[in-house]
Design a protein that fits this description.
The chain has 154 residues and is of the alpha+beta class. Helix content is 16%, strand content 44%. The chain folds into 2 domains: 1-29; 31-43 and 54-153, Immunoglobulin-like (Sandwich). The protein has one helix at residues 2-26; strands at 32-43, 56-57, 61-66, 73-75, 81-85, 89-94, 100-104, 108-116, 119-121, 133-136, 141-153. Strands 3, 4, 5, 6, 8, 9 and 10 form a 7-stranded antiparallel sheet that branches. Strands 1, 2, 7 and 11 form a 4-stranded mixed sheet that branches. The relative contact order is 0.25.
Length: 154
Amino acid sequence: MKQFFTILYVFVFTAGCHNMKKLAVENSVTQGIKGQISEIRGNSMPSPDEPATQPRALKTTLYIYEKTNTAQVDRIGTSAFYTAIHSKKIAEVQSNDSGAFSVSLPAGDYSVFALVDGKYYANSFDSRNFIVPVTVTEGHLSELKISVSSRASY
């Protein structure tokens, strides 16, 4: 019985150390972009009789490119999907099971795309048609929330 508790203690201690290491890695980014990516699916029309559709965390790859204009991509029709991006790729990062991500970047201007159904996805623009623009300033983390709505109906 004593051996069982010893093994259990070692297992719990090891798992705890692993989680602390993982948190330390995730929290080690002090300059760049951190954020959350989620997906909305199904009927999202407001209704007094139905509760609003809740977003679900999305585990996927995010690609960070130099600030990219709509003239620098190959877009699928008028959708939020792209088959090619003709600007310089700077980094890529995987979101976790909770949809959280963080990436260390030098100060500068960037565009962020998510991998959805094997294609690049981005659904917001600024007034000059730059896609999901994010500015990183020296010593700061820029926050970004991405909502994938390609499977939602409104």
